Amino acid sequence: MNTVSSLLDIGYSLSRLKNGVHCILWVLFCLASWADTNLAGIRGEREVMNENMRVVVAEETPSVMRAADELASFLGTVTGRRIPVGRERAKGVNLLVGPAAARLADPAFDAGGLGAEGIVLRSAGNDLILAGGHPRGTLYAVYTFLEDYAGCRWWTEKASCVPANPGFAVPKELNIRHVPALEYRWPFWTHINASADLAVRNKVNGPDRLRDPKYGGRMSHGGVHTFYRLIPPAKYFGEHSEWFSELQGRRTHERAQLCLSNGDMRRELTRELKAFIRGNPEPAVYSVSQNDWEGYCECAACRALAGKYGGQSGIMIWFVNHVAEEIEKEFPSASLSTLAYMYTRSAPTGIRVRKNVIVQLCSIECSFSAPLEHERNLAFQKDIRAWSKVADRLYVWDYVTNFRHHVLPHPNLRVLGPNVRFLAAHNVKGIFEQGAYTTRGAEFAELRGWVLAKLLWDPSLDGGRLIREFVEGYYGPAAGPHVLRYIDLMHDAVEAGNDHLGCFSEHTAAFLSFENLAAGWKLLAAAEAAAEGSPEYRPRVQAAQLPVMYAFLMRWNEMRGRAKQIGAAWPLPEDIRAVHEAFLKIARSEGMTRLTEWIEGLGALDDAVKKAGAGS
Fold it and tell me: Measured between alpha carbons, how far is 62 from 84 in angstroms, rounded to an integer?
């Protein structure tokens, strides 16, 4: 049954040797920085109980079995000993994984109220219960224990820290219960989407790769921009042009929407959606949402409904509510999702969202150099407060990268923690954090992905402390301080200049001055020097240098001119071709395939380099 129990002790010894060298200084940092930020609960005295430690699992549920195997595997690496997995309690310390095993020590144990993901970490004499709601809670209980008490960290799919600690102690008098405030949590980055192991260990529940029952399945927002998938113009426009938008007096499907007041179209869309659900019962959320442009219908009937319900969001909710009512009759556990986006972002009046409808409010127009609660984002604040009054299941689609220049410096790290807390405080039940999902190598992608995963699981955590923890652990104790100073430099610059910092910012933004970039390069060069000789840390620091190199390359002659104007030393090699080649070498090693969300390849940078050469 268990893969762990057959591992050889020598495997643990080799793993301990590797991890001990890289993690010991990070563990010291971790102990200080996490001392007062763990989940609320009663923290017991640590007592060495390493002898006769075993993992007990008493059910065949795939996710619980995986939790037991993961616990035994990682604790084996930590302690340097094979941790057996069995079905019965034995003399010594039993780590009871899952509700059924918990009842071996506490027959009254009840997972009620934990939902699908709530966790319990509770001492039972010398034993420890690690259990949670079905299907993901027990997994999350185990990973919480491994993080908070064994010091394990999973930075990326390839980078982790599992520190050697032969004297590992199981806590006594432990009593923790945590139910996540957010039912849906997805930092949408390429490296997270590519690894189910990374996602589940960091308690992310959105990626498609989590469908396997051993990961506990996944949550979904159902997709977006589905009008033309449900009512394809190629199939319907010829005979039913009246089902599509009337714009300037004529029916069209080109960059248009559906005519939401048309009852025949609504019935056909409902019929098509029911057929889709029958063939795709999982996940139980399905999108009925506007296309990714304007073009809403201007016919008299649509205008009347929009007027009755407070605007375009009103007719959208009216329409989706009708579809959801019909879907519920056949699929009572299914939910529909729709968008509050662009022309539907403001909340409706005179209508409530049905209980089986999820509204995804989008922050696309916001400033990300300031928190959402800043006066610069007053319009969004008004919208979220209004939506939270009319929608029981409100999700937010947030934007945490620069889609026009994925690799450009984008100093939004300081707002990540405040923004997640703000959203959770306004009745938000799920957050989709859209990052760079079509390429690797985006600016601080690994940092943002990890920090956001932690914040989405527990919005009360300190975002700044999480940033410091990741940087110290991922870039190393020698290079980390230099990287942190670089991060502070860029954030101070964008704040001092009051840059809007949207998710489509240009590479000519004011904070990207020669002075700031040159100072940033100096810090990152110091970080690389500090990581010299480390095959683990040095490549990561070099990847962190790409955004500054990119900013210089895109405006090479302008930057050269500014350096000459102020009499400053040029920080990079004199030859643009050498800098370009160095950029490409690092970018390829990182797996970078795009500079923007939309265009494959690195051609825009090649063009900028050619232009700079011609103008020099």
Answer: 18
